Amino acid sequence: MEWKKYSIEDNYLSLTGVLALFLFFASFYFQSLILFFTAVTILILIFANSYYLKHIGEHLHFDNDSQKNRFFPEEKGEWMLLFVNKGLPIMKGSLRIYFDDIITPMDGLGEKRLTQYEVNIPLSLSYNQQKTVKIPFTARKRGVAKIRKMEWHIPHFFGIGETVLEYKRLIIQEALVYPLPTPVENMSSFLSERSGETFVSHSLYEDYLSPSGTRDYVYSDSFNRINWKASARMQTLQTKVFDLVAETGWNLSINIVDSHAITNQIEQLISSAAELAYFSTKQNIPFSVCINIRVAGAIPFYYIPAGTGKEQLQRVLEALAIVDQHSSIFPYEKMLSFYDRHLSAQPFFIHGGKSTARSEEILNMISKRGATLLELQLNENKAVLKPKQSLMKGVMVHDKK
């Protein structure tokens, strides 16, 4: 059975049963058919009520398919709950759904209870009937909303008590709300001018093993770059064009902790990180992310390896969406040390959040291995990307171009 069942009864139900038995025996004493049929009717109803409540929900099925829907704040969506009843009919039931306040139910359906909403929907289900319940909502803020509990309240025949069916399994629907980006100044200043292997839209360097096509010859072109086959076909001189490459790649390292607690700047920090992710996707910059949230696995913190394109952007936005005030913290210094010793380094290392003397030591070691250290500095309504200022000796870690 998918449902945990418990009853909430009123003492009047027991008194009604005692009264029915008294009337039953009294009918023989007084030889009254009215008392007899009244007592028998009440006893039959009590027996039927008991049988109904004992077997209700035995063949009630909830279609618990995995659903992950993605939204931005203010976008609209809906929970879709499919029920199939192959058992006793559920009459005058009330379905109660509890979910996180990351989203807000529409049409005044919900009632706020601390960090959750409770939605109460009248719902009856006949034998061999299936029904889909839709609960519309609006995405309110960044985060992950899940259905935390689902209960079906079924009243007793006499209206003095109810039976509650509580769904026992984890409901695997969730609404993922992405962060909105916050403007970050100075990002274009750190597009690399060094030769590398990453394809970019603007660079001084070309990959001569990766031709991308031809164009019309101009007098400033080198003679050995003429494509003679294309020139013969086009009846005009054609110059070889190669893919532009540069040494690029950003790793964003986010420290969500400030003095043993989640920083109160977490929303601005995450929104700025989202803007960096959008920019790196547009510029085709390989982008990796480290967040000091403890996870199980070979890498003990949340890490997204370097990648490009829309799929990488989606992975980064999902990672930023799951960060909340209840996340399990992994020490930032240990995360930096693990990155330095075990993970693929990127040419640019961007630090966001608070830092300590120990984390500064590790950042300097990362810098000595060739990475350019940058810092995501937060202001009131925006952020700025700047070269990292060392806290240890008050010196600037210069951009190594």
TrEMBL record:
The keyword S-adenosyl-L-methionine does not apply. The chain crosses the membrane at residues 12-30, 36-53. Residues 214-323 form the DUF58 domain. Keywords: Membrane, Transmembrane, Transmembrane helix. InterPro entries: DUF58. PANTHER family: DUF58 DOMAIN-CONTAINING PROTEIN (PTHR34351:SF2), SLR1927 PROTEIN-RELATED (PTHR34351). This is DUF58 domain-containing protein. It comes from Cytobacillus mangrovibacter.
